[in-house]
Fold:
Amino acid sequence: MEGLEEKLKGLSIARRSRPKEPTYLLDVALQPAGLLAVTCSDLSIHLHDKATLNPVGEYRGHGGPLCGVVFSHSSPDLIYSGSADGTVRGWDARRPGSEAAQVFKSHRSHCYCSFDLSCGDALLCAGTEQVQEDSFLVFWDVRKPGGGLLGTYSESHSDDVTQVRFHPREKDRLASSSVDGLVNVFDLSRGAEEEALLATCNSDSSVSSVCWSGAEYTQLLCLGQDEGLHLWDLSRLDTDEPLAVFGTSDARGLPLTADGGGSGVDYLVGGRWLEEAQKLLVVGGKNSGDLHLMECDGGGLRLLRSLEGGHASTVRCFLWDAAGEALVTGGEDAQLLLWKPGGREFSGGKKRESMKSETSLRLKSRPHKKHGYEKEKAGKSKS
Structure:
């Protein structure tokens, strides 16, 4: 861990990129070959060179707020994006600006607020907004022509499905979270929903995201929309031990250093298991744009490094590039930042002012930072 801590302590801004038009940056995905894909509140997907952050191209085609982006694991030239327009689309990274190569749909009433691709690249799953009394997990086989719709699960959540996450190593293992406060774990190889449901964990409040973690990815990190945090160990399911490794109803009140100091966080951005270091990294932020990089384990949250002077407002997304030993962050100030140990900013750009006053952005993206997904209750048909 010492190596990682030293790298984090040495982080500084190496590159900075802004789109031509003001937009929130919502989610970011890494292609090991050298590209970053970034979803934006103006419904576009931007490609950047991961070393320089120079723009490479963009894709347009979605008609609703975007809910994520991922690269295929075995075919890294294929990008998937999901949207509240009721589609998951596949794009060719070699042809920026082209139309979607694949489009996945289900029932016309479905609006997706989360999606993911299995580690084996065979299954896509999307979580829907609540439709009348139900919420759905929708599944497709990406190898089948004509969309490959396999079916849905509809009994496990009673409100919007805020995130679905496939296990990094087990292609049939899936976790889902919801506004209903539940986090469910499925073994899809068992088929029907009732048999596939392995575990249900209750966070007691609306869940914004989940993250697989732990040495064998047997743990789940759950972050709440009210900044609650829970870490569960699923390897204890068949024992009498409690699943909870650590939990708090509000991470904003936690001290971040051993002496009880630290300025705390205003919100949680997300978590990521760093396999090389065998540690769970949680990123939190201040409304000013400053960031806290924290380690999370049974002892709670421990501050590793604070990053100041980069963003000017809420940070929405991040990723850790282990190969490049770099952190990438994006947020509501329309900035994409590359942080590297000993980095010296190449561009002379100044810190961008907050875009909170941009009324057009407020219309396109929900005020909080989690997904960039905004419920459009008025006038929406449920038929």
Notes: The helical segments are 2-9, 193-196, 359-364. The domain at 2-364 is CATH 2.130.10.10 (Methylamine Dehydrogenase; Chain H). Confidence is low (pLDDT under 50) at residues 348-383.
